[in-house]
Amino acid sequence: MKNRKYCAVCHQLGDGTHFGAIVCKACAAFFKRTTTLKLDFKCRKENEKCVIKMSSRDSCKKCRYLKCLAVGMKLLSEDQTVSLCDSSSLDCVPSCSPRSPKFDTKLDQFQTPTLFKLYSNYQKLCSTRFNLHYRNISNSSPRPCTHEEFQKIYIEDVKLQNIFLEESYDEYKNMGNLEKQRVFKHFFVTFMMTEMGFRTHSEGRYNNFVVANGDYIDLKSLDTFYHKPDENRRCKPTDAVRIYQPAFTQMKRNIVDPFSEKKLSIIEFLALVSLSVWNESIDNNPTEFYQNCQSVKEKTIRDLITYYEQDINEPDPLFRLGSILMLLPSIERSIQLFVQHVEFKNMFQCYAFHQRLYEIIHDTLTKEQDEAYDSFMENQDRLTKDLFQNYNPDFTTIYTLRSSNSVNLSDSSHPPPLNMNFKCRNIKLVDVVEREEKVSFLFDWIAEWEDRRLRWNPADYGGIEHFYTLQKNVWKPEITVSDAHDIVDFQPESQKIAWINSNGTVGFYLSIIVSVICELDVYRFPRDTHTCSVNIMFHAYFKNEYHITNEPVDLPEPASQLGNGEFQILAINTSTQISPPGDADIQKINVTFRRNPGFYISLIMIPALFINVLSIVAVFVNVENIPEKLTIGLTNIMAMTFILSILADDLPKTKKIPLLAIYVILSLVIIVAAICCVVILKYVRKMKWYNLTRDQDESYDKFLENQDRLTKDLFKNYNPDFTTIYTLHSSKSINSSGYNHPPPLNLNFKCRMLKLIDVVEKEEKVTFLVDYLAEWQDRRLRWNPKDYDGIEHFYTLQKNIWIPEITIADAHNVIDFQPESQKIAWINSNGTVGFYVSAVVSVICQLDVYKFPRDIHTCSVNVMFHSYFKNEYQITNEQIDLSQPISELGNGEFQILSINTSTLIADPRNADIQKVNVTFQRNPGFYIALVIIPALFINVLSIVAVFVNIENIPEKFTIGLTNVMAMTFVLSILADDLPKTKKPPLLAIYVIISLVIIVAAICLIFNTHGLSVDENISYRRFLSEQKRLFKNLFEDYDADISALYTLTNSSFVDEYSIHPPKLTLYLQCRMMKLIDVVEKEEKVTFLFDYVVQWQDIRLQWDPNDYGGITHIYVQQKNIWIPEITLSDAHDVIDFQTDQQKTAWVYYNGSIGFYTSSVPSVICQMDVFKFPMDSHICSVNIQFHTYLLDEYKMINQPVNIPQPVGYLGNGEWKVEWVNATMWDTEGVVADIQQVQVKIKRNPGFYIALVIIPAFFINILTVFALFYKIEALPEKFSLGLTNIMAMTFIIAILADDLPKTKQIPLLAIYVIVSLVITIFSLFSIIILVKIKKLKCYEGGQKLKFEYVLMFVFQLANFVNFIVLFF
Question: Domain Nuclear receptor: where (predicted)?
């Protein structure tokens, strides 16, 4: 580190020499990006003298770039680049070109004709690309491409891909032009996306997307892709990067990552393209096309299997094929995402695609009312044309000559400043991230101003006084929420509506979620109060050019309902901050809110108090036991540290330390001081002399002296390296007749435990826990107990004595967890020596899985003494004496049937083997329930589905492939679990027969039936009439013009005029399913489906004129749709794209659509009765842009097709769902509320929290009052109980919101702590009282039992209260 130099630009540690100067990586990357992209910056101070250092280098890019040049940084010139390849061959791609994939695979033209043709034509395609783009360029190294270059590459690639498709598939070549067009559109996107993913994977550039010519899109620096701004574009490069970055990441995850994981080869890539392109989902094609799809897929799969078996010798071709086929859904998802990506670009003109690429890739009224509505629509159409004919929304309506020095006008000659009316309609607290000091609000507001260019005389346009249009069509003042950390606006631009009145007043309603940085004072935490502001300003304009009218806050809900569980709103008001003349005034919406402290008081402060009190008492009881006091101190410190960690996670790092943190720190100081006092007190007590000797000590000392003398005498001449085995039995060097041989050494072996641990079937390895006892006689270790004061046995380390070599034969592995220093043996006075061994033994056992999963196996653990001659020892193999019942010796998958012993008599030269035989059987329930029964149902359903609607052949093949994939999954389970034995398992035979049955069933119905001649004629007639109807309906229809009639209250029309009725909006909830409840955030998420219907008489027709067509389906974007808002929603997710959103239109003008969304709403929760709590939450729907007298909303009853019992989830159940109308009395738009009552299923908390806590408390009180004299033990029990209760409190802290009311369960825990504390104090007092007077045992009732009964009764009452 000492030798590293500093960056010459920003003065942080340098990274070496880059571009001619010593700089850091950040400055080197900044210089390269700025120079390469030729970016131009402006100095923020306009003097180009900003100070550049590490902390401020990003504040002024202009001065940073100038400093780079000043220190000598420069790019290499073009003649310094290195040529990578100089080949210009027209026949093939140069082998050294880094822009082409590697063609190093050899295929047999006759064995794999389809893939061979694809491979050869792809090679030609790459060669043609190279010659087209880089034939005359010496340096062909890849480089990042831009958005314009990307489009140019693929526009040129269209013709090449079409040639590739024609030469690769005869089926495509023989198609008609219309069919070719449909297939090529699908092929182009599929091939482009799949090829980019394959080339990215094959070239190892995982942070890029490699395009057709070998260049790449740099995913880590997308600003190089979207770098060139264009005046026709509606978004900046930085906006494009922010919008499209997630789409690129998703495509990489769906294609590149799976390709890399599977190590996809070029042949597999081409096969995937073939299988994806020939897709039966392409509509409006003749039957022959679908037959071609099936034919091409079959030939591709057949060739791919041949390629696996003969060309690369794949060990498991079918498994590899299945894994490759599973990539198809992710490819299809990426294609859909890319198409949506392109649609979005072109819809919002944000880096839109070239047109050529884009085309490849995308109730009844009366006659009088009808005439009135037609007249209104004509007048509205004429009005909008007249108003917007010369209107430019890019020009402001603000008068800017007021301060001009170039005009000579008196003040009275100037028009008044622009009046901007601002009004807050709702501000609801969503979240407080205290650590970041970030506060989020749901903020709804109305802005109105006057645009004199948009005035008209209502009398000239049939009395129209106002109408609605898209906000993008009018000029809007630049309204800024200043000091905002983040702003989320859920409405797309295409749905933002503005209203225009005849006097030129323009306005709109906006609902956003705004996050502001608010300095929080947490000194009084958790009783802290804060005031935060949302600041609105118009900073782009001079103060004398406009005037702001900030109206009082008009909230639709009481302030008490605008907070959340942890914080309550105290006050909301508005104020204006007057700024200096050069700056804009700021309109402030001030929100004062206060924390509900109940959560922290009950779950932190009270437990901390009890922990400290108990710790102090425990420290001063039995002060001699210093290690125990240190343990108590450490336990207290850990508990206090846990509390501090909660504070550290929740609170910001402000200047002031919270009072609660000071309390915790003082508690730590007190406990440390107490322990220091105890240590000092112990040493003071040691100054006094007192006699601790007893008679027991004298006896024990004498025993130790005798044992020491015995061991010295025994081991004085003892050598453990010499065996005790007599080896003269078979000696030929002695006269055996003259010898009286001692008997052979008797070895006693006894199995005490044999428990099954694991069965690794694939390796045929079975692991047991084996405990056994071994005893023998060593005559060198005998003594007379009378000589050593009666000692008949003693214990010593095994390493001190000779031990026979006992071997577990045929063991794959033996694990002995005891170290040598802990292995003990016993020695009896008659010379008997023995020891106990516990080991984990893995043996190889031949498994017969033919009857899997009902298979039975027998395995043996073999023990032998192979080092000694058979005539020198004798083994006594005793019967097994197990310490547990045999039913408890298996595991979850296997049960033990029997355990016995036997002896395998070997030939005289080998040792006999003592066998412990174990027979065990598999528990088949898992495989029957999760494999066999589902496989049976899959097969039955597949057979039924195959023979239903047999005309749909593609669907049958899908069913067949699904069945094959399911059966393949079952086979994969078997392959993972079972050994590769000679006999295949019966279950595998069952799966294979199932596959044969489903294939046979599909073959039986392989006889397609198309439409009859009459049916075909009828269908074509219907299509023709529908096309004509579409043309006539939408010829003069404008979806931007609303269907609302706005003349009802117009003062410019005759009061006796006939008005059509209000627009009636019917809204009905069709599904309300609970998805998730995030209790800590008080956020509830639903799956919310609803139907909306209204009438637009512009879309009426006579069915008799159009072949009897009574209704049609259109995309929602083609018709006017009322602006529907889910108000008070924290988040709304709509999974449907605009292309997928459909509406129905009936001949009477009735229009409707079905919408499925996932809204998340903030719902104030009352968890007082947790976990038996219930809550009512609502999703609110309103049409807030329109005047109340222009429409009527009809609240229809909820119509959910599923029973209420199916609408909840595992933790919550839905009790009822209903819809009500909330009348706002004309202040704001009416709100339809869909209310849901949810109730928690308490079983989890009762079983895993409440009942265990109850038994812990019962047992704690019982243990406290049993043998009350052992006070230190009682304090340990008390602290253990507190730690258990603290764990329960931690569960509550994780699950529950910090509401005002303390949950009953928390109260139960606190009362339990109080009972434990009082029990401890009662014991202390009782022990002191007993020391004052002698009691004779059994003469009086023990008072501690009375107290125990009282406290147990308190525990029981405390438990019962929870449920009432």
Answer: 4-80
